[in-house]
Amino acid sequence: MFELKEGDAFVVLAILVYFIVVLTIGFVYAKRSNSSTSEYFLGGRKVGPWFTALSAEASDMSGYLLMGMPGLAYFCGASDVGWTAIGLAIGTYLNWLFVAKRLRKYSVKAGDAITLPGFYSNRFHADKNIIGTIAALIILLFFCVYCGSCFVTCGKLFNSLFGWDYRIMMIFGALIVFLYTMVGGYLSVVATDFVQGCLMFFALVVVFFGSITMAGGVENTAAFLSDIPGYLSMTSMSTPVTVDGYSLSEAKAMVDAGALPADYAVEQGVSNGQPLFGVPAEYGLLTIISTMSWGLGYFGMPQVLVRFMGIRNENEVKTSRRIAIVWVIISMFAAVMIGMIGRAIIPIEFLTNSSAESIFIRLSQIMLPAFFCGLVVSGILAASMSSASSYLLITGSSVAENIFRGVFKKNATDNQVLIVSRITLAAVLLFGIFVAWEEDSVIFQVVSYAWAGLGASFGPLTLFALYWRRTNKAGAIAGMITGAAMVLIWHNLIKPLGGVFGIYELLPAFLCSCIAIVVVSLLTKEPEQEVLDEFDHYMDEPTEERSLDEVLEGGLPL
């Protein structure tokens, strides 16, 4: 089951080095993180701009950056993944520009909130903590799904590299994430995210330039891809030929399993060693707008918003923004190009969307020596583990701080809250493993569902909480529930109708949430004067400056 081919030992060695590094970081920060809930959940708001920027982006860009996006580009060309990347880049910039500084200041002003549900609750002075409880439950729901997508990445990585059992390796990767998150808390997550962000960037750049060289240069690659109908177009999408409704590899697998006759014509999808494509599907304006709406999700992503809350000083947000946007643009460009160039290098090896998500791994194996291949593919582990650790920590903190201490035991000690948080981590771990159990799960699709749920539930509320003083408790509750409900309804009941209803569920759910917040807030009682006064002056609050000695003593770089 765990046999190694010649040369694979060096790949395993590089991956083991990576595991040792991230676990060491977790244990290094363990003592400091467990000193209080503020340290464990938010690092005491002492994180510098470089750590904040790379941690926010590494935790956001989960396995879909190195597997989902290249796989989608490989399978159906530039349009779908291209417009998604453009939307994400715009969303990243606008989120840092309009939300980061304000959320950092307001979260301190609003009772020094250390979780996102806590901020919403304190912002509206919700004494019964209904807002925080609803927010925590939404996070629990969608982050369980999100964690599952990260665990899928771990399983696919080891299965593609060594042929090891997908489920065993998926569980192994999940347990590693659980261990260092549980021990080290926020600081270990941020520190490992910084390392992982650097590793992901390095991996993408190396494989991008290596694949161009392997394909014979830009001109040869462009000439090959231009012959595929709709592959390079941003207004149409290529459609790989299937065999009686099955992709080529699916048909082969069914023949092997005895589900189809042995003489089944599984070679119909290939001609002269090249994949066959049908008439390109139209990619119209409505679809483009729908796809770009991925960028709206950033305004409601807890793993990103909590990084804004934890930055050392809001005056460092501009530096973080510049670092983040450069990292995001270069990384996503490289990821998309790797998938498309991979189609030119190995055109018929991956003939389903699910299998195509291994293109980054396969190119790394082909072009790099074993040990360096191990380092590069560790970038995939970095992507999935940095995201999963953030999801686990945020879910644990939300349930423990906003449901356990906020509702059931208001006088709970920090130690009791930390215990409940770790129990929650274990529960989310198990549910994430359940979500990731099927090997054919498509990472991009799993991520898109959870992204829509969180973006529609919290994105509008975050913007209105920071910019509209008339927003009240009833409007906040209506916005969260409407956003979450519309994602579930649109995805499962309306989207299958197709046509104009086939748009990404985030867009209609986001708009409905905005409408709900405005309408309900205007139809119900105006916020108390204390809430209005706090809103009017939260941007005036000075931020405590820290000396160089304090920064160095805190163990985090400038």
Main sheet summary: 2 strands, antiparallel
Report helical residue fraction: over 70%
H and E order: HHHHHHHHHHEHEEEHHHHHHHHHHHH
**What is the approximate shape?**
globular
Overall description:
With 558 residues, the protein is mainly α. It has a single domain (34-240, 277-541), classed as Sodium/glucose cotransporter (Up-down Bundle), CATH 1.20.1730.10. It is 71% helix and 1% strand. The chain is built from 23 helices and 4 strands. The chain has helices at 8-28, 30-33, 37-42, 49-60, 63-76, 78-109, 116-123, 130-162, 166-214, 218-226, 248-256, 285-292, 302-310, 317-345, 353-356, 359-367, 370-408, 414-435, 443-467, 473-494, 506-523, 529-537, 548-554, and strands at residues 236-237, 270-271, 274-275, 281-282. The strands form 2 sheets. The chain has a two-stranded antiparallel sheet. Strands 2-3 form a two-stranded antiparallel sheet. Strand 2 and strand 3 form a beta hairpin. Helix 5 packs across helix 17, helix 7 (116-123) packs antiparallel against helix 8 and helix 19 (443-467) packs parallel to helix 21 (506-523). It is globular, with a radius of gyration of 23 Å. Residues 264-269 and 545-558 have low confidence and may be disordered.
